[in-house]
Amino acid sequence: MKKLIFLFVLMFMFSCGDYIDQPKNLVPEDKMSEILADMAINDQATFMFQNTNLESGTRFILKTHNVKPDDFVESFKYYVVKQKMSDIADEAQKKLLKKDPKADQYVKDKIKKNLNVPTFAR
Predict the structure, then answer these.
(1) pLDDT number for residue 98
(2) Residue 101 domain-assigned (yes or no)
(3) If we measure between CA atoms, which residue out of 28, 35, 24 comes closest to residue 70?
(4) Does residue 122 lie within any of the structural domains?
(5) Which domain of life is it from (predicted)?
(6) Does residue 66 have a pLDDT over 80?
(7) Are the C-beta atoms of 29 and 84 separated by less than 8 Å?
(8) pLDDT of residue 15
(9) pTM of the model
């Protein structure tokens, strides 16, 4: 009887492999990194210009990438649970550094001073 219970418990553990199902309209990883890079730029713009609206900027970014907000949220949750979000965020940081050479030089200066540096830049 104990062997039978152990077998059922073992089967149950291996049958539940995924915590979350893949969303129906999953945003691809490369597109997700582009969206995150654009959102980081939008976030800095709202920091620099206090009268701008972060929400309208986010809606504009999602609209230009042809992604629905619900699809973005579900994809974000999926990538976080699957532990892929850090790779996507690193790729977004690389894209930001390519877009802004001044930021690239700033990160290189921080590396020389050994201050707070992203892991991909080392």
Answers:
(1) 85
(2) yes
(3) 24
(4) no
(5) Bacteria
(6) yes
(7) yes
(8) 54
(9) 0.70
